[in-house]
Description:
With 688 residues, the protein is α+β, with helices and mostly antiparallel strands. The strands form 6 sheets. The chain has a 10-stranded mixed sheet with strand order 1-2-4-3-5-6-9-10-11-12, with helices on both faces. Strands 25, 26, 27, 28, 29, 30, 31 and 32 form an 8-stranded antiparallel sheet that branches. The longest helix is centred in the N-terminal third of the chain and has 16 residues, at 116-131.
Amino acid sequence: MSYKTLFLMILSLLPAVDAGAAVEKPATYGMEIQTAWIPMPDGVRLSADVYRPTGGKAGERFPVLLEYLPYRKHEARSRNWPLYSYFVQRGYVVAAVDIRGTGNSEGLLIPYEYSDVEHADGDVVIGWLAKQDWSNGNVGMFGISWGGFNSIQMAARDVPALKAIIAVDATEDLYQDDVHYMDGIMHLDSWEMSQDLDNARPGAPDYVVNDDNFRNRFDTEPWTLSHKRQQRDGPYWDRASLRDRYDTIRIPTFHIGGWYDGYRDSVARMLEHVKGAPVKAMIGAWHHTWPHQPYPGPGMEWRHEAVRWFDHWLKGEDTGIMDEPRFAVFVRDWHPPGPRLDDAPGRWRYEDGWPVARIRDQVLYPQDNHTLADAQPAATTHRLRYLPSIGFEAGGPVMWWGDVAHDQRGTDAFSLVYDSGPLEQDLEILGFPHALLTVSTDAKRANWIARLSDVAPDGTVTQVAGAAMNGTHRESARAPKDLEPGKPFELDIEMHFTSWVFPKGHRIRLAVNNAQWPMLWPTPEAMMTELRLSPSRLTIPVVPFEQRPVPDFLPPANDDPEFAGVESIESGTVSGYGEVSSVDRNPQTGTVVAKLTNGSGTRYPWGEERSLETIRYEVDDDNPAEARMNGTHRMEVDLPGRKLLWEAELDFRSDRENFYYSYYRRLTENGRPVREKTWKETIPRDHQ
Length: 688
């Protein structure tokens, strides 16, 4: 009998959860939106949409939940109304606040993400929300991505009224985990372009274009430029990273991640390292989405768990949530490779926290015949030519080590590959696999990528985990050092957090190479790299079976109210967000080009918006220093009697010594040029 069959037989006999079946709290209230201005000490006002319960008792006070973003809440009402309704109907005020200089808020645009200005304003916002006559004085924060990031950051600021947070698909490590330097290696995608253009636009629905807008938004330096000057870890990233100061978190935090999201590592780290306050976490199958609107499925009604969490900490009600195990894990079963996966196979279970005490490391060694085995190999060296254009199958430009990866055979063909024999029984892993490699190269700079995959009997290869490492960061990402050509050194590549059950008869694969294009910017030198098999090894975190309680999560609610008057419209979309529309490889020149096109459109009561962006990545296998990314983004707003068009173009390229940044921003109204501005800068390569 296989491990999986035995597990499922025992699972069917288990109760759902110690506390009994989940019971949804009834929706008691209606909902309305009120707008408000929140004054800052310097006279700037931040714009807030306040979603308040209706139908309650006169003078009734409620806890307040804050989502604090630069993503233009006025246009986002069609997203916010159904999202927030679950909370408001169960006795919460929800406040959506535009960050300074974004959306409908006043003031000079914050200088970059998660700046001191954003945090200081956040202190004031929380204090203001706590003092309103509809507030009971207790504030919680929540959010996905940016809203999850700054929820974690605000939890460390000792704001008296902030009592608890929920962070979805977020991280506490800005340098290694965020989109700008994945694993310490430069990354550039469409988010940075589109966000920089959005930052230049005035608030809806009036879109007032005047000197104030030019001074505070249109003429401000693009955030992308500030990121690209900061290529190593250090104070710029420390400002909002908690990886070395978990002890500053003194309020309860709840962390939600997805196996197909790039920010999942933080879930385990927060559970392990935050000691000064209660912590709960869950990780499901979805990517960078809310769990009640998942891709891939299955989803769950995370807002039910959030209400239980906030009821406990903001209302003082015993909901039983703190009596349950701290960590809910969706255990992934095998599935074929992507790019599409509607529902990930697997099941939920509870663990007491992280790390899980019963997990045991299993060590496998790469052999000279390209197998993986328990025995250490002879002292053998395998060589690999660096091809900067490979790696698309392992992670496209916006996957961030998430999403559903393609069949790995395309990348594996240009990698060093080592396979185990067919497994004699199912094997479950949970945690951070490690590739401990002894490597060398004939260049001064090189990256290494290690990937763990599942090889099915039919030959298809599904990526299970992976990570990259900048070789010049082998001792420190804060003080990188060039490599010494020909000198071997050790790398411990900790792969990203994963769960997987390798089925009986499948093989475990370790693949090693030096590029993951276009997600990671290529290193500049043509080179050969070497892997010394002894003492290199793969360590995987194996989970022995243990009978565990099972969460009884509610399925996603399907009765969220729609926000009237807003609809999606056709906009010339060629491919979905981040999907590569074409890859052209010229074998005569060695040049490889990847193209992406994405568009969207929305009709509002006041007019229509249409966006369209195109991105072109180019690299030369024989001359990797000459890599390039060119992108355009345009946002057209059609209003009665006005047609506003914001356009931007980013050209980013490199040679052996420098990056060359060129960004162009333009506004036209009814076809007439109104404003344009260009930024150009040569940025020295800093061990990238």
